[in-house]
Amino acid sequence: MTEEEKRNIHFVPNLPNILTMIRLAAIIPLVILLSKWPEYKTLSFTLFLAIWLTDILDGYIARTYNQITDFGKLFDPLVDKLFQIAVAATMAAIGRLPVWVPSFIIFRETLMILGGYLLLKNYEVVVYSDIYGKLATVFYVIALSLLFFIPEEPAWIKHVIFIPGAVLSVIATLNYARKNIHNIKSRNNTTR
User: What 3-state DSSP class applies to 36?
Assistant: First the structure.
């Protein structure tokens, strides 16, 4: 990444980036509503769904109307991660979700953020979301959506619904590692 490309990663006030910022701002009210479970269950689900649909909408607009920006490529997945972590941690805190799920998500996302930072700092490589990461996000959001509707018992269902997202997360992490190790090796070979 050149110095000019690094400078271009700034907020561009187009509709997809504004929707991303609205999603970010909506996470705090969602956490507050979820923490008052089950009193605001319906309102919580409505806001949860709005955040998710806004994520789909901003990606569609960015691709369809050529409004993809470096800011969006980096910040949109970050907001997705914050959304998943906040909802999973809150659902675990109120007893609707097994503790291993937010622990796994936090561990994996911390690993991805640190790895991405090191790749950017040491090799000027930016890690963007790929199909496996996007599929993992979709499966996590579907599983989190189901938590609004599934009964307390049998408790094993709350574990099982998160397995596809967890498996896809592991696949995505391994794929990011494979691609970036290959990119670094290729770059090192061309600079010799």
Answer: coil
